[in-house]
Amino acid sequence: MDKTTKLNILYDYYGNLLTKPEQSHFEDYYFHNLTLAEIATNNNLSRNAVHKAIKSSELKLNTYEDKLKLFYKNNQIKQVIKDKELLNQLEDLI
Questions:
Q1: Whether CATH 2.40.110.10 fits 3-68
Q2: Are 48 and 39 in contact (CB under 8 A)?
Q3: What is the dihedral of CA 31, 36, 39, 40, to 10 degrees?
Q4: What are the sequence ranges of the domains in the chain?
Q5: How far is CA 31 from CA 2, 37, 42, 56, 78, in A?
Q6: What's 18's DSSP letter?
Q7: I need a labelling partner for 10 at 20 to 30 A (CA). Which of 29, 53, 65, 82 fits?
């Protein structure tokens, strides 16, 4: 899995744990494909400040996963469960 895909998945799990500015910068960069310069201009920040905020968000998301392992555990459960109906019910709960 590439870095961007993993970060997007981790954001789904842990994005609410980031501050509102971190969420906004992360979403602009990864979901809306804005450049660092565009995000900086839109938020009256320096490009470097935006870069640091996004890198900090990435680090936080990876740290949350390292500690809580929600994404890892979800994948492990899906691998163990072979019954499609049961798996669908589980995915509805998660």
A1: no
A2: no
A3: 160
A4: 3-68
A5: 15, 16, 16, 17, 26
A6: S
A7: 82
Report which residue type is found at 90. Answer: L
- The closest of 62, 60, 7, 55 to 30, measured between CA atoms, is 7
Count of Cβ atoms closer than 10 Å to residue 19 Cβ: 12
pLDDT band with cut points at 50, 70 and 90 for residue 46: very high
Q: Is 64 left (phi over 0), alpha (psi -120 to 50) or beta?
A: alpha
User: pLDDT tens across 20-45, in order?
Assistant: 999 999 999 999 999 999 999 999 99
Q: Which pair of structure tokens corresponds to residue 48?
A: 């470097």
Enter the tokens of residue 36. Answer: 């660092």
Classify burial at 56, counting beta carbons within 10 Å of its beta carbon; exposed 0-12, middle 13-18, buried 19 or more.
Answer: middle
